[in-house]
Q: What sequence folds into this?
């Protein structure tokens, strides 16, 4: 396992001062009670900020709404899954036996979440500048152009744009419950719009999927109230 992590650090072009952070970042909840979900939460924010900065510089002609849509394309699960495979992250994952048998090493949600956890770990290990540079390296091989704005919006992006158009803050998402075995959990996520005093919940096979479901429920509720 140590040699696999050494190889991963070489591919990341970052060698950890605290190797335990990397070990934690590749640890799925099916393997241990001490797992990577808190790092994933942190890395999600690092990723969004770093990609936003990248797009701000590279697509200077696009307005805010279109930039948000391009960013949604870049930070979605499919894109992160591809980046994780390119890094060889699948070989470094620490998974429980059940998750390994069910193909967890190649599951897009697990790999995307682990990549975000690694970004969170790099941020804690060396600061935002190093983490941002890693994000920029990861996306060097990804084509970024203004036509990406034409892609369909996911519910989280659509809800965020709806709120921003009305000068409201972005929604808050929180996991309120999990069910099922450790290697095959369902996440219940709550979406809250503080200024409107509204909450909606959604379910999904990952935190990310639960957030999208909760955002979709919130959008449906908002539309019904404005009809």
A:
């Amino acid at each position: 396992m140590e040699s696999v992590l050494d190889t991963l650090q070489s591919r990341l072009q970052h060698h950890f001062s605290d190797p335990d952070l990397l070990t934690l970042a590749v640890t799925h909840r099916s393997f241990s009670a001490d797992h990577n979900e808190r790092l994933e939460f942190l890395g999600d924010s690092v990723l969004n900020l770093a990609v936003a900065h990248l797009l701000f510089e590279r697509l200077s002609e696009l307005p805010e709404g279109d930039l948000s849509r391009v960013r949604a394309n870049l930070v979605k699960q499919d894109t992160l899954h591809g980046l994780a495979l390119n890094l060889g992250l699948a070989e470094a994952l620490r998974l429980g036996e059940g998750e390994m048998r069910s193909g967890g090493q190649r599951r897009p949600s697990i790999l995307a979440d682990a990549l975000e956890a690694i970004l969170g770990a790099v941020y804690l290990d060396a600061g935002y500048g190093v983490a941002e540079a890693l994000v920029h390296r990861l996306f060097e091989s990804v084509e970024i152009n203004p036509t990406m704005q034409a892609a369909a919006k996911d519910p989280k992006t659509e809800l965020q744009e709806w709120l921003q158009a009305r000068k409201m803050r972005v929604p808050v998402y929180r996991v309120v419950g999990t069910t099922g075995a450790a290697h095959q959990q369902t996440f219940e996520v709550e979406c809250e719009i503080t200024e409107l005093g509204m909450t909606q919940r959604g379910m999904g096979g990952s935190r990310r999927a639960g957030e999208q479901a909760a955002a979709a429920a919130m959008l449906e509720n908002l539309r019904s109230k404005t009809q």
Summary: The CA atoms of residues 31 and 96 lie 4 Å apart. DSSP finds eleven helices and three strands in the chain.
